[in-house]
Design goal:
Layout lengths: L1 H12 L8 H8 L4 H13 L9 H16 L2 H14 L4 H9 L5 H27 L4 H23 L7 H6 L6 H9 L6 H4 L1 H25 L5 H25 L1
Amino acid sequence: MVLSAVRGGLGFLTRLPVGGGETEWDAFRRSPVAFPLVGYVVGGLAALPLIAPLPVSTAAALYLVVLYLVTGVTHADGLADLGDAAVVHGDDERRMSVLKDSQTGVGGLLALGLTLVVLALGALGLAGAAGRVALTAGVAIAVAAEVGAKAGMATLVCLGDPAHEGLGSALVSENGPLGLFRVAVACLPAVALAPLTGEAAVFTALVCGPLVALVVRSWGRNHLGGVSGDLIGATNELARATAIHVGVVTWTLL
């Protein structure tokens, strides 16, 4: 069941050619534990440039390239839609209409642009950390941040209420708070990275995802009536960028 769910998660959350079909999709949407397990794969692949003998700026750029080659732009599109909905004037129905609109406005461009800039600057911090302490801090934080971001997506899936029928409801309606226990257990292997960079840096990178998810959940409940697929994708992007900076800052200070 878990292997089918992970395969379905890789098919849904990445562009990796893992195959799969309806059986794997059904297993994934009923198993939020697959989210952080996919995070290990994505984080590990994206971190590969950080261990190469490259200039810091080149390693950071390649981190971003590999990351979006692996994940695609679906989650970034959700962030852009959230940005548009957040700045629109009007009631919840108007916000929902903007959220579903395929065109990207100023709010979406601003949200996406700022997040990418923040992520790029965080990637420079990762590459710098990896360069100073070979193969250690930058890689550990990158993996922990990705696992935490996926745990944030799982948090929304387990604690949210569907805003409307669609992709988000297909995930949210199948899960509840009890699913978070298995999600937390799936995050524990990331703690094994702690000797590479310190317990505090790994822990703070991991918890950023669920914390960002709770903020997004609150906003979605107040302004959209619940959680949508766009909010789940946006949580991934916002949580990753936040976690990388928090992890690097924690490692630097402690």
